[in-house]
Design brief:
The chain is built from three helices and 13 strands; from the N terminus they run βββαβββββαββββαβ. The protein has 299 residues and is α+β, with helices and mostly antiparallel strands.
Length: 299
């Protein structure tokens, strides 16, 4: 604690001194030199003797300076936020226009969307290159192929975990701002992406259909059937499921019947996959995709 005496006024007024009674500042002040209105029994120290002792400062001027600095920094920050360049949205993920529900965002391999009767999985994300076209009336990818569906358009889909896709689509309903399509296609599932065997891979891909937000208005899914699938000396696994949606613009659409067939093609690093979708209750397109599924061949 500083001794009682005259000290430079803590409010910062030049050449003004204020009496400190040893406990607190008083209202007694004097301008320059020694204090003349000293009162009390203090030492009456003059300004030039206060080189080694200083009374506690009130901090008023310092706080004022700090407050001004804070205000200036706040104004600078607001200005930066207003004037900073806008982000380049061209690099953000864009909607997948090639899916069976083309207004939905691209397949999300980290989705946590719950599904009815289907576990949520982390879908692999590999090379999404497209398969080369063929002129023999079949969709081909690696060693798996299926017959093309007459009247459907060739359109390769974007599924991050399916490689070398070759597929067709057919528009079922057109609405604004959404639409509905059916699909039939083949591709490759890589062992490096976690597809270990045909049965596991078929169930895994089915879960990706159901839980990856591929379907606009997705409400749930269930497996209808699953069984072994054999073609010209090669074994595989077939899973049929129903995926349900609610879309205000398409109240007539309940969802899709989805087939996934994974075939062992004799390669250690890849398996062939066939997939299709047909709107629930659309018997005409269901017959077309059923025929395509039955045309599967492994070379």
């Amino acid at each position: 604690m500083a001794r009682a005496g005259w000290y430079p006024d803590p409010d910062g007024t030049p050449d003004r001194f204020r009496w400190f009674d040893g406990q607190a500042w008083t209202d007694q002040t004097t301008m320059g030199g020694r204090g003349g209105a000293g009162g009390g029994s203090g030492s009456g120290a003059s300004p030039d003797t206060l080189t080694t002792e200083r009374a506690p400062r009130s901090g008023g001027p310092i706080r004022a300076v700090l407050a001004a600095a804070v205000v200036i920094l706040a104004l600078v920050l607001v200005g930066w936020l207003v004037m900073r360049p806008k982000p380049d949205n061209s690099q953000l993920a864009q909607p997948d226009q090639n899916s069976s529900t083309p207004t939905v965002s691209a397949w999300n391999e980290k989705s946590a969307t719950p599904s009815a009767g289907s576990s949520v999985v982390k879908c692999p994300s590999g090379d999404v290159s497209k398969a080369a076209g063929s002129s023999d009336g079949r969709l081909r990818s690696g060693r798996i192929s299926v017959a093309r569906i007459s009247g459907w358009g060739d359109q390769a889909l974007d599924m991050p975990w399916v490689r070398n896709i070759s597929s067709q689509t057919d528009t079922v309903y057109v609405a604004s701002p959404t639409g509905w399509m059916s699909v039939s296609g083949v591709g490759q599932l890589a062992a490096a992406d976690g597809f270990s065997d045909a049965k596991t891979a078929a169930q895994m891909m089915t879960d990706c259909f159901a839980s990856s937000q591929y379907y606009s208005g997705f409400t749930g899914s269930k497996v209808i059937s699953q069984q072994e699938f054999d073609r010209n000396g090669h074994t595989g696994w077939w899973v049929r499921s129903e995926i349900y949606v609610t879309i205000p613009q398409l109240p007539q659409v309940r969802g899709d019947v989805v087939d996934v067939v994974v075939m062992d093609t004799g390669q250690s690093d890849f398996m062939g996959v066939y997939f299709n979708s047909a709107t629930i209750g659309d018997s005409a397109r269901q017959k077309l995709v059923d025929a395509a599924r039955e045309s599967i061949q492994v070379s």
